[in-house]
Amino acid sequence: MAFDIAVKRIYEAPEKSDGQRVLVDRVWPRGVAKKDAALTLWLKEIAPSDELRKWFGHEPARWTEFQKRYGAELDGNEDVVAKLRALLDKGRVTLLFGAHDEAHNNAVALAGYLLRHPRA
Predict the structure, then answer these.
(1) What is the DSSP letter of 98?
(2) Which of 35, 110, 32 is nearest to 67 (CA)?
C-alpha cells in the first residue's frame, strides 16, 4: 500500500484535505500561533540534526547529498519514523515545514524517504 503524503508550508491555511497535519521542523516557525496551526502532531524528533541542517543551509547544490545524509539519520531513528508510518496507515498525512524553499527542505526529503521505504 502506498502512503498518501502531502507536503506544504505551515504558513498556508489548513484544509480538510490535509488529513493529519504533522510539523516536521525542530524549531517552531516564526509568526505561527500554535492554535492556528491545526496540528495533529509536532514531530520535532524526526527533523534533521542541527549539524546536518546547518551544513545544508537550503543550498540547492547540496540537495542530493542532504537527502542521503538525512536518509541515514532516519535509518537510525526507527522509533520516530514508525510513529509517522502509523499515522500514514490511517490515511493522508500532510508534512508541514517552515522553510521558504518549497522544493528543497526536510519535509520534501522526508516524504521521498517514506515513499522509498514504506516499511522498516
Answers:
(1) -
(2) 110
- pTM to 2 decimal places: 0.95
Three cell numbers written together for 89: 496507515
φ, ψ at 31 (rounded to 5°): 80, 5
3-state secondary structure of 90: coil
- Residue 73's contacts (CB-CB under 8 Å, 6 or more residues apart) are 48, 49, 52
3-state secondary structure of 26: coil
Burial class (CB in 10 A: 0-12, 13-18, 19+), 88: buried
Q: Which residues pair with residue 41 across a beta bridge?
A: 22
The domain ranges of the chain are 5-116
C-alpha cell of residue 27: 524549531
Confidence of residue 118 (pLDDT cuts 50, 70, 90): confident
Residue 1 predicted with pLDDT over 60: no
